[in-house]
Amino acid sequence: MMASITAAAKAKNSGKPNNSGRPKQNREAILLFLPALLPVLILSVYPLIRGIALGFTDARAGLNVETSFIGFENFSKLLHNNLFWDSFRIGVIWTLSVTILQFVAALGLALLLNADLKFRGVARTLALIPWAMPPVVVAIMWRLLLHPTNGPVNEILLKLHLTDQPINFLGDFSTALPAVIVVGIWVGMPMTTVTLLAGLQSIDRSLYEAAAVDGASAWSQFWNITLPQLRTVIVAITSLDMIWNFNSFGLVYVLTAGGPGGKTMLPMLFAYNEAFRYGNFGMAAAMGDVMVVIIILFLFFYLRNRLRSEA
Amino acid sequence: MRTRPATRALQYAAVVVYLIFLGFPLLWLISSSLKSPQEFASITPSLLPKHANLSNYTDALNEQGLVRGLGNSLQISIYSTILVLIVALPVSYALARFRSRLRPLTNGWILVSQVFPVILIVIPLFMILRPLHLTNTIPGVVIVYMVWSLPFALWMLQGYVAAVPRELEEAAAVDGATRLRTIVSIVMPLLRPGLIATAMFTFISAWNEFFFALVLLQDPELKTLPLVLARFVGAEGQVQFGPLAAASVLATVPSLVFFAFLQRRLTSGLLSGAVKG
């Protein structure tokens, strides 16, 4: 099933657009673009550019406030703000832990599901439920699970004598960030698994047969065939996961709202508070600008290294 | 290649661990939604409710705010889905069929829109929509959702259009049909599975969306279901777990139902594309 998706994708790419009658086609294309062009320009392109520029102004919430250009003042304020550095550090820990842990788990699982096991169909179908669930519901569900007095997780830990007192996972300084990371993995891992599984199924079987004839061990087949063949899929899914995780908001907002004591204050939560709790639009936009720069730098280095080693 | 029984056993154990990690939270949510308040109060929670009943669901549905949230979410999701389809269909046709200068620009925009943190967009949007009196209104949120889910809708639909055999259109053109006529009577019917899949995807995105709604809708009368649920949790202390779990299950049902269809539609649409491609 998944293999045919890849096949379909390949077939799709081979359908090159017709290049004859260029001038007439251009006019027709523009006509077809028109209904989307105006809303996209007004509500997506313009706000994005204005949002980037806003980081260099002292814009504040509230009606009719004149804003003026203040250069890099917001940025230097951010750099001198400990809370900014905290949220930045928490954002990096969260992004790397969720992405890496979910990738390793997902790769293992995809390899398992690619083998000829029972429950395969069940596992695949279940795999996509977390992805389709509203993030708010996922957060509520995990608050029920991790609840210090009514939650089953504490109940199980107590029964197994792994702890002698219930743990307030989301409310305790030392456990809040790890707990939130586990929830992040729960949400993201299934989707990563399915993507990797599709990649695995598009690998040519004959490569393994040839390796087996040469007496290559399963381990060496994994390193020399599976991983190199999966490289493009891995680069695509992990870079997307990193960007999504770095920019994520709703899940943690409902789980902890950045608490306790700012221990789970992701960059987006920090920016949201600046803008809509304290009214510092300029400062929040500056935070957004910093995030964009980080993402672009990451994409640049990660993709360049990854794709170069592939060539 | 033979797998040794010990390895096989380990493999099954790993899959079972995964199924528990994935399935247990879901099972707990559903079971919680069927429990009585007394069972919640008991010191040892049990996995399955002792006397399963639907009273939490009726309680949730008697809650004014929840029903209103359900209605708001339904309205916003349906309107933005219709709007997205109307706008996305011609564009994705143009993207798949013409080599225009707008094509690389659009594809670039599709990629960029996936990368930027929404905080950069939402503040200017707020500043644009407020003087137009569109913050705190359903139409305001609908157009924001339209623009926000358009990139992915274009991404999906483009593929479906490309899978429609070009020969059919050429044949229609030979018979003297205009481009518009060809699109409406040849491409659209063949595109139905793709349109349905895109519609469902757009609906789910709007139904699940939280951030834009949080910023743009302050009026309690207009809050969407995710906002109502989130506020429910915020007011802990008196929070009633049973109705909260029931409302959470209710909020997930449309996504899951649509997704179940979407999955089959997606694969069948792509399959037919593969056969003809």
TrEMBL record, chain A:
It is found in: Cell membrane. GO terms for biological process: transmembrane transport. Keywords: Cell membrane, Membrane, Sugar transport, Transmembrane, Transmembrane helix, Transport. Residues 1-23 are annotated as: Disordered. Residues 88-302 form the ABC transmembrane type-1 domain. Its main location: membrane. GO terms for cellular component: plasma membrane. The chain crosses the membrane at residues 29-49, 92-113, 125-145, 176-200, 275-303. PROSITE patterns: ABC_TM1. InterPro entries: MetI-like, MetI-like_sf, UgpAE/MalFG_permease. It is a multi-pass membrane protein. The keyword Cell membrane applies. Belongs to the binding-protein-dependent transport system permease family. PANTHER family: ARABINOOLIGOSACCHARIDES TRANSPORT SYSTEM PERMEASE PROTEIN ARAP, BLL4140 PROTEIN. This is Multiple sugar transport system permease protein. It comes from Kribbella solani.
UniProtKB/TrEMBL annotation, chain B:
CDD domains: TM_PBP2. One of its GO terms (biological process) is transmembrane transport. Residues 70-262 form the ABC transmembrane type-1 domain. InterPro entries: BP-dep_ABC_trans_perm, MetI-like, MetI-like_sf. GO terms for cellular component: plasma membrane. Pfam families: BPD_transp_1. Keywords: Cell membrane, Membrane, Sugar transport, Transmembrane, Transmembrane helix, Transport. It comes from the Bacteria. The chain crosses the membrane at residues 12-30, 76-96, 108-132, 138-157, 241-262. It is found in: Cell membrane. It is a multi-pass membrane protein. Belongs to the binding-protein-dependent transport system permease family. This is Multiple sugar transport system permease protein. It comes from Kribbella solani.
